[in-house]
# Entry
Amino acid sequence: MASIRKDTSKLHKSQMATSSRHNTSVYTCNTVSEIYFYELHLSIELSEYRYTLLSEEVFDFSRGEMTQSKIKELKQSLTSEFQLIYELCLYVLSASQRTELIRATLSTLHAFLSWIPLGYIFESPLLETLLNFFPMPSYRNLTLQCLTEVAALNFGDFYNAQYVKMYTIFMKLLQTMIPLNTNIPEAYAIGSSEEQAFIQNLALFFTSFYKSHIRVLETPGENIAALLMGVEYLTKISYVDDTKVFKVPIF
# Structure
């Protein structure tokens, strides 16, 4: 009970702080559209905060301070609310032109993708939307992190066709961003921190996808060609002179 009261107090304080920021910032919005997007942003921030509470609770459980039933209860609560979060996220990604709001939305999706109901991922426009953002420099790292979360999921063969489609589109987009003949170790050495993070995230995507879904690509034709191309990218990344990046393709 003390833990629940503490979490409720935290959430109340967060809402109060969010409300205070809202009251201050609305006056700087110039249009109804901007005010609406700001409201969406506040909703997303609150959702992120609630997810953080869940993470903290689960961590407490690892120290014997929480029951499995409480974990299940919190997850069910957030899952039941995710329909609204999902609709807000998709609306922002389809309608907003504000970079910070889109980045906040992608960060929120990244936090939820590892455990939300699979229908939200594979039976909706979400994957297509994420792939549309992937080539954009301002969003490519966050988008790649989201795609990596999806790639790491493994619930049997039911969504194999969607995984093949996702991987095929991903590889076509990647070739326009980093041609296969690119000297990746050299590009990493002279690249910005954002560009270096992209290469590391790229290695994580490939290793996550292959660990869970390589079998669906091991068929003659376009699938095997796309697989071999991805392996070539991953091999080049393994030559990057950075221990953290080097370890990703190995593990």
